[in-house]
Structures are given as C-alpha cells and as structure tokens.
Fold this protein.
Amino acid sequence: MPNYIIAHDLGTTGNKATLYDREGSLAGAAFHAYATEYAHTGWAEQNPTDWWRAVCHSTRQLLSETRVPASDIACITFSGQMMGAVPLDRQARPLRNAIIWADQRALAQERAIGEVVSFDDMYQISGHRLSAAYSLAKILWLRDNQPELYAATYKFMHAKDAIVARLTGEFVTEPSDASSMNLYDLRRGQWSAQILDAVQLDVDKLPQLRQSIDVVGAVRADVADEVGVLAGTPVVVGGGDGACAAAGAGVVREGNAYNYVGSSSWIAISSPAPIYDPAHRTFTFGHVIPDMFMPTGTMQAAGASYQWTRDQLSSIEMETAERLSINVYELMNLQVERIQPGAEGLFFLPYLLGERSPRWNPHARGAFIGLTIRHSRAHMLRAALEGVTLNLRVILDAFRAQGTEIEAMRLIGGGASGHIWNQIMADIYGLPVQRLSILEEATSMGAALVGGVGVGLYPGFEMSEQMNQVAATIQPQPANQALYEKMLPIFDRLYESLAPVYTELAAL
C-alpha cells in the first residue's frame, strides 16, 4: 500500500500542502498564496481558479522537494475555509468568483430569511444563529442580484468541495462544511426541508452529503498531469478548517476541548450531540469524526487585540526587537510578567472588531476601564491578555452550564506559544492548559488524519495523540485563579453597562 498522504489546507491567504507518512510524521510542506478582492465595503471574494492553481503548484512542489513518487500517494484530502458560496457548472468550473466567509453583503437576505424562519427554529435546526456570514444568505444574494448566474449554477459548493469536484467530478460535501451554511439539519444529518421550503431553495443545487472520511472519488485522467499525481489516486473529502483543527488538536473524544489562538480565537469541544445554549452564545458544527459534533464559540479580536497593543503601545519593544532580530512579543511578554495578575484593577474589553461569541454585538467596542495615574503601558499589555481570556472564559462557561465536563484545555495557533499567556489562560479557565507540540500546522495535520483514517493508513482518530503530543502542561495557580473568579462578574457587568452606549456610538 502507498505510504503517504497529501493534505491541502485551503485557507484565506493561500493553500498549504503537507505530506504525512504512515507513522503520522510530517515529511514536507509547500505553500502557494492567492489574493482576496474587496470590491466594496463588506464584500470579500476569491477566484476559485486561483485555488486550483495553488493546489496544482503546491502538489508538484511538495513531491519534487521530498522526492516522493506519485505512485506512493495513498490519497489526497482537504481542509478548507468555511461558510462560502462557490457556484459551479456541471464540469465543476466556477461561474464567478467565490463569495468567501468574510463577506457580509447579504444583510437584506438575512432579514428576509428571518421573516420566514424564526430565530429559534434556525438555531435549533442548524445549530447556528441566522447570519449573512453563512452560505444560505450568500446563495440568496446571488439569486436576487445575479439571477441568470443562479439559474446556470449546477451546485453551490465550499472551497475544498469545489476542488474535490474538479479532481473527481463528484459534487459532495460533509457535515463540518454543511453545518456552516444555515441549511443543514444537525440532528437529522441532512439538508433541512423546513428551511429549504421556507426560502424556496432547490435542494438539487446543493451537493450530496457524505462523511468526512469517505473516499468520494479518484483523480480523473484529464487533470492528473496538471495536478502532478497519478490518475486514480483516491480523494477523501476531508473537512472544514475548524473541524480539521479539532482533529489535529486531538479533540476526538467526548469532553475534549481546544482553544485556537490566532488573530481571532475560539474554544471548541467534541460532543456526541449538539449543544444548544439558552442564551445562544455558542453554536455547533458537525465534526469530521462520524456521528460527533463540535460545539464552538468564536471571538473576533483575540491575538488581534494584542497585536493592536503592539502597534499602538509597544514602539520601544518593536524597535528593540528589530535591532536584536527577536520576536517583539517576547519583549512585550516580559513587560506583562512584571505586573501582578489583575493589572491593579485595570480591565480591557476586547471588542475592537465588534463581537461574535459570547456577545453577538457588531456594535461592541473596545475599552480600557479602571485607568488610574498608577497604571503603565505594562499594565495595559497585561489587561489586554486578561480581557481576551476573560471573554473566552464566558464561552467556556456556556459549555459548562450545559453539563459539559472538561478536564484540560489544549492550545494551538500562533498565539499559543507565549508562556505568560498560557499561565493566564490556566488561571482564568481554572484548568490545566496543554500547549501542543504542533501549533500552526494542526489544521493541515487534522486533514491528513481524516484522509489516513479514510483510506485505512491510520487505525483511527486516536492517532492524533501520537501525531501532535503535549509539549507542556501549565497548571492554574490557586491564588490567581481566586482573583480572576472575582474579576469575571465585574467583566460581564462592564460589557452589559456599556451595551446601550455602543448602540448610541454606532448611530453617530
């Protein structure tokens, strides 16, 4: 049997191709960038042909650099950006640019859907709030504004599924991406007849539903040379990037949890059933693991908040880091370590980009509250890290309120590398925090895991524990934990007190 898996991670900035062997070790990686077009405020589009070229280029580069023959590839599999709309014809060719996850143009369609599908029905059926960010509203925008293109569309697809269709001729998706559309019935595992009927959308324009681990086809002879692999190479559909990251983080059993820390941040868990929060603070995706789910809460500006403090408050550290050729965040973290937990009563509300979970308020704004003459830049840096983590704690508590027991929090993402932030997380979450050995490659590794399980190269999803081991465990410090427990309700009341003001600010 062939010994290697090619996993493609079709992200927002480019495609990362990785090669994993049958022991679960990374054998090589290649990256090919592509652009995003922002033609109008709230619009975000990408050219699916750029995705195809990136997949072909990175595949050929990967095999060339590793000198692995195409005959030794057991399968190709995918992770990809979610919540998009890619109209394809019957030959799997794009009819226009893809409307990607970041696009918010379909606000009128969101309102129209809300008139025929109640808020509670949408949340209970799809596991998500109704939002212009999801695929349904984007598809309806195309129907309303480009009706001839809509009529010519054979299937509306996601990024990874569009590439799978071009590779194999099969138009399929799976639960993790399907559940990011406001169209998928989570509990029934099928497209929602109620929602489709309400919005008068033809189910034939949606892809066939399969499992993430399914071999859905093989590379066609007419594209094999262009891609750089053998015709007949099996293709496993894979999953959305969030669910693949969960697999890569080892969140494969009930109660496992992980925290991704990048520009945005989310907490997600593995569950045998969707979790419906009475306050609608969280949402639920399908998992890449059959018959499992991934309840999630995503905040907007996590690492972005610390990046803002870097850009606006840390010019000294930036100049020093450039002169010494070191990471500026290491110098900022040294400043944070000088300050006692709680930043002497200084709070930071991390709503620089509005907020998704747990507030769901696009008008929310950032703030430092409690400033006194004694506070310094270092206090503000620490308050920023604490404010982001307190906001994530609210998401964590939403899961705990539904009876979810979490023993430890796994960390991935570029923002997870700083020890001081790891300690703040452990203290605020009241949990051991496990920093994994692979932080920024976890998503593509999760896709490789899905492919390996799909073709039988890996025995099961527990292989993730071998592929991405715990590099360090940080225990909560009882005194700090007690302080943050006192701060958490104050943090909540600060947001609630300012919520009416945010509405007034938005009207200015």
